[in-house]
UniProtKB/TrEMBL annotation:
Subcellular location: Cell membrane
Keywords: Cell membrane, Membrane, Transmembrane, Transmembrane helix
Transmembrane segments: 47-71, 77-98, 256-278, 290-312, 319-336, 406-426
Region (Disordered): 1-28, 432-453
Topology within the bilayer: Multi-pass membrane protein
Keyword Transmembrane helix among record annotations: yes
Keyword Membrane part of the UniProt annotation: yes
A GO CC term attached to the entry: plasma membrane
InterPro entries: MFS, MFS_trans_sf
Major subcellular location class: membrane
GO molecular function per UniProt: transmembrane transporter activity
Name of the protein this chain belongs to: Putative major facilitator superfamily transporter
The organism's place on the tree of life at top rank: Bacteria
């Protein structure tokens, strides 16, 4: 697999190299800057970063504008809220039935095609007289495309950056963009809607997707498909997608890592899903509600940035299990029905748990075969968003029958138990006998164990 500066040596880059070697990036014989600087030193990644920033802002602004547009057309709070729910649930369709697209076709073609389809869907929302039902269908189209795009981009990062330390840092940058886009997108969307119509904002969204497509087309290299393009009888797309998902879920190691990726966010999102009624209990106004909604992304951006910038690869990997559990623990504080200030602190602390992903990314990419990497990343993303959507819905149902001071801390208790159980399974499936080793290295014939000195 190519690295940023040319063909990589046989096999993948070490899953967790020694501290000094890891900080130097892929072994190319040339010294590289450390951390995030090393990632942005790769020109191709800068294009991917800019494209992701554009499309992420476009998605957030689109959600706000579409929700406002639907409410103006129907005066229905239910349909307006449904536009946000439809941004999560169709992930399972695209992630399960279309995941093979990420491996079967050249990555640049898939990424550009996804952006163009999203631009067309956003443009369709702008058309005068578009029925509300069509608007919601187009929102589903955007959501179904999202996991295919995200999975393809994640797998492509391995080709752009190599799959060692630079890959982990590149994934970190993507997560920072995701969280920052929520903050900036909500602010920008709200400001734009004070001066222009929702249709005009949706037109800007279509333009953002077109800009992303152009950046990816001009700034990334044309690479062949991962699963042997042109090979004989590769089978139907649906069968390949389902077969890949089946393999991922039946492999014990990969399944454990998928669960470790999915479960903490599922429980973390429960307090966030109940913030509106909780803000009502506190009697906060719109300003307080805005602070509550921003707190968790702020914690996530701070933790991701600080851990990525100031800790070495080994220290980041060792944080995986503690931070995975810690992410769900601040929910216990809601049992005391804290005031606004303490609630903000609990949410910021919850957001810091995102830093557990550094280790999971490293282990996951080492455990999955090259030919399935795109499908694996697509299933990972689709599963995460789907379980988050289900968790939000179940939290709402629970809050109908129990007080918030019970539901929110109960999520923390149940989350801690589930995450600890998954951590136990991840440790049991770790290759080799050295449980402190962060993961395997994939050699030419498959996974092998690397024992650190």
């Amino acid at each position: 697999m190519p690295s940023p500066s040319g063909p990589a040596p046989s096999g993948r880059l070490p899953a967790c190299p020694d501290e000094g070697a890891a900080d130097a990036g892929p072994s190319t014989g040339v010294a590289r800057p450390d951390g995030y600087r090393a990632v942005f030193a790769v020109p191709e990644f800068r294009y991917v970063f800019a494209a992701h920033l554009l499309s992420s802002l476009g998605v957030v602004v689109c959600e706000i504008a579409l929700s406002v547009l639907v409410f103006r057309l129907t005066a229905s709070p239910l349909l307006s809220a449904l536009t946000f729910a439809l941004g999560l649930l169709p992930y399972v369709v695209g992630g399960t039935l279309l995941s093979a697209v990420a491996d079967r076709y050249p990555a640049r073609r898939v990424l550009v095609g996804c952006d163009l389809l999203c631009a067309l869907a956003a443009a369709g929302m702008v058309a005068p007289g578009t029925p509300v039902a069509v608007l919601l269908v187009l929102r589903c189209v955007l959501a179904a495309i999202a996991p295919v795009f995200a999975g393809t981009r994640a797998a492509t990062l391995g080709e752009i950056l190599g799959e060692g330390e630079l890959f982990v840092m590149g994934r970190s940058v993507i997560r920072i963009v995701n969280q920052s886009a929520q903050l900036a997108g909500f602010a920008a969307g709200g400001l734009l809607l004070t001066v222009v119509s929702p249709a005009a904002v949706l037109a800007l969204t279509a333009g953002a997707f077109l800009g992303s497509a152009l950046l990816l087309r001009l700034g990334t290299l044309a690479r062949p498909a991962r699963d042997g393009i042109g090979g004989p009888a590769r089978g139907a797309l649906l069968a390949a997608s389902l077969g890949g998902a089946r393999w991922l879920l039946t492999d014990r190691r990969v399944r454990a890592l998928l669960l470790l990726t999915w479960l903490p966010p599922a429980f973390v999102v429960i307090p966030e899903a109940l913030l509106v009624p909780y803000a009502g209990l506190l009697g906060t106004g719109p300003a307080g509600m805005g602070l509550l909604m921003c707190s968790m992304p702020i914690g996530a951006v701070l933790a991701e940035s600080l851990v990525g910038a100031f800790l070495g690869p080994r220290a980041r990997t060792r944080l995986t299990f503690p931070m995975g559990v810690f992410a769900v623990l601040p929910s216990l504080g809601f049992a005391a029905q804290p005031s606004l200030g303490w609630t903000l602190l609990l949410l910021v602390l919850t957001g810091t748990g995102i830093s557990y992903n550094f280790g999971v990314d490293r282990w996951f990419v080492a455990a999955v075969p090259d030919a399935l990497l795109g499908r694996a990343m697509t299933v990972m993303q689709a599963g995460r968003m789907t379980v988050m959507g289900l968790a939000m819905g179940l939290a709402g149902v629970a809050a109908e029958y129990a007080p918030l001071r019970v539901v929110m801390p109960a999520a923390g208790v149940l989350g801690a138990v589930c995450v600890l159980a998954v951590i136990f399974e991840v440790r049991r499936t770790a290759p080799g006998t050295d449980r402190t080793s962060p993961g395997p290295v994939r050699g030419p014939a498959g996974p092998v164990t690397r024992t650190e000195k």
